[in-house]
Amino acid sequence: MNISTSNLTLGYGDFIVLKDINVTIPKNKITILVGSNGCGKSTLLKTMARLLKPISGKVALGDMDIFERPSKEIAKELAILTQSPDAPSDLTVFNLVKQGRYPYQSWFSQWSKEDEDIVEYALEKTGLSDIRNKKLSELSGGQKQRVWIAMTLAQQTEIILLDEPTNHLDIKYKIEVLDLLKHLNQHEGRTIVMVLHDINLACRYADHIIAIKDGKVYDEGNPIEIITEKLINDVFDINAKIIECPLFKTPMCITYQNLSI
Amino acid sequence: MINRKITELTLKSNKSKFLFLIGLIFLLIAFFFASLLLGYIKTDFNDLVNTYSNYTDSIEQIVIMTSRMPRALTALFIGASLSVSGLLMQILTKNPMASPGLLGVNSGAAFFMVFAYSFIPNLTQNYLMLFSFVGAALAVLLVYALAGGIRGTIQTFDLTLAGAAISAIFISFTQIVLYKDQKTMEEVLFWLTGAVEGRSMDALFKVIPIMLISWVICFLLAKRLNLFSLGEEIAKGLGLNIELLKLQIILLVVVLAGASVAVAGPIALVGLIIPHFTRFLVGSEFKWAIPYSIVLGAILLLSADVASRFIIFPKEIPVGAVTAILGTPFFIYIARKAENK
Questions:
Q1: Which of A149, A239, B57, B221 holds its CA 20 to 30 A away from the CA of B244?
Q2: What is B2-6+23-36+65-340's CATH number, 3.30.1330.30, 3.40.640.10, 2.40.50.100, 1.10.3470.10?
Q3: How far is A100 from chain B (nearest CA, A)?
Q4: Which ipTM value was assigned to this complex?
Q5: What's the pTM?
Q6: What's the CATH class of domain A3-77+158-256?
């Protein structure tokens, strides 16, 4: 299933953040939204996950308007992990991951063997099986983030949206989380859409980048094709020299303000 | 903030949570009997049995039937309801200091009660109760509307602000009426401190079924409340209708806290302390937190009421004053323990 937006205008009250956005998120790929602070990339992500209502325009999941379908049905096709979520710290890993099964439960069908198996799978994928009974307060930042990702995995959706999943993480955990998402994309064909701050990591992990500037999509496409010194300068308002990453052959930006400091 | 405070968890497995709950229920029953038997007029277990099997109109039996039984039931149901509504308020506002009073429940009820006392003479107890319940509900309705409930999305921060504003207005209205009418002041002072005695069985039987039903509804919402505690965006992403849930929470608080304050006046602290103590014991899983707050809230108010008969014996003091004396040391202990962890 594809997510696409048509003439999407977003904002808060009278304040317009994004205007007439038309994008289609490629299926089974990793799409990364980039742009400077406050450009509206998180707003766009949340609207695509039906957390925010647009001022005008549409978000379609498949060929249906996302706001016209029951929210619980959407939750079986699309999962969203918002930025730095905060759960009660006495919850155990297992009890948090298990919440991902909510869309599949009703008054009549309660917790089943299938739910149990899927939570098991999510714990295993994220390497949390051994610490399933630990409380959130006992975990490191990287582990906590993996627990939240496990919860979205338990939702068993084709599409996963993440708002800055590496925020506040040490460099090691940043890579760990992004590698996990890449793995989910490559081995299970999940469509992943995320907002990332770090342009170099975005270039390394993205199949598709959407760069946002001044309330519009500045450019979109494969990082190798679209990331140029001009784009960095226009979108982030900083000078850059672009070289090829020696490891991943993706664009790497060396940013600077002034060459003679 | 609320999430970080609660780090201590003494009961881990479901089995220990269940067994401890059973233990607490026995404690509750013990306090219930203590409430029926202890007081200025000495009674024993035989008097209690005879009151309901072999009624002879003795002074002991009259006291048990007309005074202590309604009083014990009032303490039980109101303690439980106040503490559950406090739990709901804390989850709704994500504020560990929240209690039902934050929505304007107490001030609305107080104003309507004082107004009715002062301007409509010879009202029966049932009508006074109804009046203060309407006041509580009206205050919450105003708070809800101010916080954006009408346009469909309420912000919990706005809810807190609107609650403080509406409360302030109702409190000053109440003060104006009391200032104008000194006689009313003396009569309602006891109610305004919070009191569980002097309620008729008849009035209680109107309130108790409503409270029982509300407790059951809370329990049915437990799973959704768990989801809500993960934050509004996460809950929404999982397909929960959070605006509906917020409305349900507010309605439950109106019914539980509104009915409580209508019957017994604004009893302080139960709705603040017990939810903390509950989470300290069993964590934030609502299928446990709800029954624990019901039982612990009932125990606190029953024990406070029994204590209120002996602190300045033979005179009694309002139970609202005692809950603070009993509850505060506990509260400080838990708060400190949670912080040190």
A1: A149
A2: 1.10.3470.10
A3: 7
A4: 0.91
A5: 0.88
A6: alpha beta
